[in-house]
Amino acid sequence: MGIEILEAAADKVVARMPVEGNTQPYGILHGGASVVLAETLGSIGSALHAHTLGKIAVGLDINATHHRAAREGWVTGTAVPVTLGGSVACYEVTIVDDSGRRTCTSRITCILRPAAPGA
């Protein structure tokens, strides 16, 4: 996927991903690739939050709305928390192209579970 993490904290996670190599047959960024980027960002943020509670984060739900196509360059995703609780973490992820135009909006929810012994 070529995802590069640029910033990672529980309150904000930023990464970018190349369009090239992640396209569908029409030459545009595959919607599933956008979802992979969104889930990666939300999962990292959730895991960082869960760690402060001695827990782990596991994906529970994700959705995405694709607003416009990206044909070249990079897309950049930014995840910010909607809620950071003791049992659930939810992030909104916005993905933009090199011109700053929104290509996708996603929401990911992770459930926070007790860490297994030794994990």
Automatic annotation (TrEMBL):
<keyword id="KW-0378">Hydrolase</keyword>
<dbReference type="GO" id="GO:0061522">
    <property type="term" value="F:1,4-dihydroxy-2-naphthoyl-CoA thioesterase activity"/>
</dbReference>
<dbReference type="InterPro" id="IPR029069">
    <property type="entry name" value="HotDog_dom_sf"/>
</dbReference>
<protein>
    <submittedName>
        <fullName>Aromatic compound degradation protein PaaI</fullName>
    </submittedName>
</protein>
<dbReference type="InterPro" id="IPR006683">
    <property type="entry name" value="Thioestr_dom"/>
</dbReference>
<feature type="domain" description="Thioesterase">
    <location>
        <begin position="26"/>
        <end position="104"/>
    </location>
</feature>
<dbReference type="InterPro" id="IPR003736">
    <property type="entry name" value="PAAI_dom"/>
</dbReference>
<dbReference type="GO" id="GO:0005829">
    <property type="term" value="C:cytosol"/>
</dbReference>
<dbReference type="Pfam" id="PF03061">
    <property type="entry name" value="4HBT"/>
</dbReference>
<comment type="similarity">
    <text>Belongs to the thioesterase PaaI family.</text>
</comment>
